[in-house]
Each structure stands twice: as C-alpha cells, then as structure tokens.
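Morning. Coffee machine broken again, so started the prediction first thing and wrote up yesterday's gels while waiting. Chain of 435 residues, entered below exactly as on the submission form.
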Amino acid sequence: MYDEHNRGQFHFSARRGWINDPNAPLWYDGVYHLYFQHNPDGLAWGNLHWGHATSPDLVHWTEQPIALRPDLHPGNLYSGGGVVDTENVSGLRSGDHAPILLYSGTDGVTLFYSTDGGYTFHTYDNGRSVAVPEGKSRDPKVFRHEPTGRWCMVIWSDHSGYGVDFFTSPNFLDWTFASRYPAAWLYECPDLIPLPLDGNLNWVLNGASGEYVVGDFDGRAFTTAHPEPQRFNHGTNHPGGDYYAGLTFANLPDDRAISIAWQGGNAGSVWTGNLTFPVQFRLRVVDGVPKVLSTPIAELDDLRETTLTWADVRLDTDRTLTGAAVCTVEAEFHIEEGTTRVGFRVGPREVAYDTATATLDGVPMPPDGDTVKIQLLVDRGQLEIFGNDGLVYKSLNADLGGDRLDVFADGGAHLVKLVFSPLHSIWQTGQRSIS
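Came back before lunch.
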C-alpha cells in the first residue's frame, strides 16, 4: 500500500484511514513523538482518535498503536498540544519516565497523561476540565516562558470574536486566565513560538491557516507592533487544502523551532491525507518587518541516495533530470539581461521564477542581488517549494506522475549551481505500522 502512485515516500501518512491535524509533536528520551487526528476506520473526517507515530530522526516514522480513543478517553478528542513534565511538577510521575501530558477537548480543556514514555495515556481527574475559556473553544497548546519560569497555555476561542486566550499554571493542573488577544484572522490551532532575532527573543503567534504575527510575550499577554498577519506557507490554507494546522515540536534537545502541518488534498485506496515534511523556522527582518523563514530540516540529508552537482553552466535549453519521482533539487540562477523565467517542470507542474513580476510560483520574492535560489521537494503526490533560503515556502498536493524533471531558463541564464538527489523511501527501512 505504500507503493501507490501518489503515496508520499518521505511525507508521513497513516498506514490506513483518515488523518488531519498534527497534535502534540514532541521529543522525549531520544524519541520524536507525533500524534495526529485520525479516523482509523474510514477515509473521511469523523470518529476521531489520536493516532501516534515515533521516529529517531524526524524523517523515518513508525506508526504506533492509537494513543487516545473515544471508547477509553472522554470528551471530544479534537486537536491539542503536549508537553513533557521533566521536573514532575504535576506530581503525576509513576515509575522511571517523566510524565508526558496531552491537552485536548472542546469548550474546556481535558488532560491526559502518560507514565510509560508517551505510548499509553490515563485521563486526569475523570476528565474534569482544567481550563474553561469563554465561548466555544478548542486546540490548547502548552509551552514554557523561560524568562518568568511560567507554564502557559494558548487556546482558541470565539467569545467577542475570534482570538486566543492565555492561561498560566505552576503545575500543569491548575490554570488561571491571564489575557486575551483578539484577531479576526486567527482561527483554530494556535501556537506561540519563541524565536531569536538580533540577540533578542521574539514570539510568533499563529493560527491554523499559517497566518502569523511577530511580537512580545511577557508570560501573561502578547503584544505586537506589526498586527497585519503574514503567512508561513503560500499553499491553499484551509481544512483539506495544501497547508493547515501546523504545530512546532516541544521539548526539543536543541534550540531549533521545527514545524509540521496537515496536507489534506491527497488520498489513496486505504488512506486520506498526509503531513508536510518538517521545516525549521528562523526570523529575519525583511523590508523593516520581522519575517519567518522556513527551510527543510537538515535531516533531509539522511534520505539522499546519491548527490549529483553541476556548477557554472550556461542554460540556453532545457536540461532533463531522470529518476526524479522522489527527490530534492536545489538551484541557484544568475539572472541576466533578457532572462524572463527560470525554474523547473515537474511532470505537468511548472515552478517558475518570473523576473518581470519578481514572483516564485506566484508568490512575491525579490531576487538576492542578481541571483535566485529555488529548492523543490518532489514526492509523488506532494510538492514543496522553497525560495531564497526560505523566504518563500509553498506546499502543494499534486499528482506529479513520472520521474522526469526539467530545469529551464527562458531567455537564457547562468546556472551557478544545481544539486540533485534522489531520496530513499522512509517506508523501505522496516518502518511499518503495528496498530
């Protein structure tokens, strides 16, 4: 079943059934855990469980038995977040493992906790809500505010319009309302991410659509001098589209901010939906405004079968690369007088930089001096586009077909460098579901 023509070979999808939002991605004791909204018995949304997969390296995933199921765990098991209670401030530890806590539920937050390293979960206090925002609410995400030593929760709610509520807790169990940030654009699955910029800590607040603002968070309230939202990703950003409901991993052993999101536009005979390839977030000032840049995580290199490199090539006619059904390709073009378009043709799909409009696949992207960089992740039914070291990030579900990839330059251009790597399948390494 992993060999279906549009099944991603390095994008995670469930062995069978429906998936949507990633939930509570985290690292614990050398293992990356990925939970996700899952209907194990059908190909459409409904009958929601929390599926579970683990990885040693963020690219090779083993699907585990279901983590939360409606016949054992109370409440609506909709999206949420998770955290590792490394110091056992909750007092829920039992045995050798630190408690892993999952927060879920609608119109009140339900807590589930694991004492076996994140594989099975108990319900805290018979499902009593540990936090109850006003109005309709869902999708809690818990995070640490290091400057004040506070544990904080951001949760979406609709009272007085769309926005998020912030709660604080000393122990993960007792939560106090702290503040509200209203925003008409901010719908579902919020995240608040600390990112450094020029020696200062900034905070990125986003919703499920991938729209975000950058500002300050003092442990209780979020403020921003730039309230107009930007976008992480320029694919269609609605449920079932090319990019939705991204979350960052918690408790990582390094200082990276790594995000993964849902792509709902792909399906096969026994599965529906996949997740994006993980990206690393960084902040950079662009035109006077802090902007999030997204690049594939460095662990992509572990999947390279071979690497072919071309440098200093005059590109007047198309060049064809074969064996490109599952690959990554990176190119740096020197734009010359007369160059109108440069880029790639991947099966029926063209990814082009237009010099007249300064856009990559329709997304604004000024050249870096007189050069343009384009990277593609090509994976049967998934195509992810990166431009100028993460200035542009776009995810697409598309039936790409075949294994041919052409690099082109209308009007001619100088190809400074091109690196092409077919990629191993993550499903050919013994990683199989045991659910």
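Residues 304-428 form a domain with the Jelly Rolls fold (CATH 2.60.120.560). Going to sketch it on the whiteboard this afternoon.
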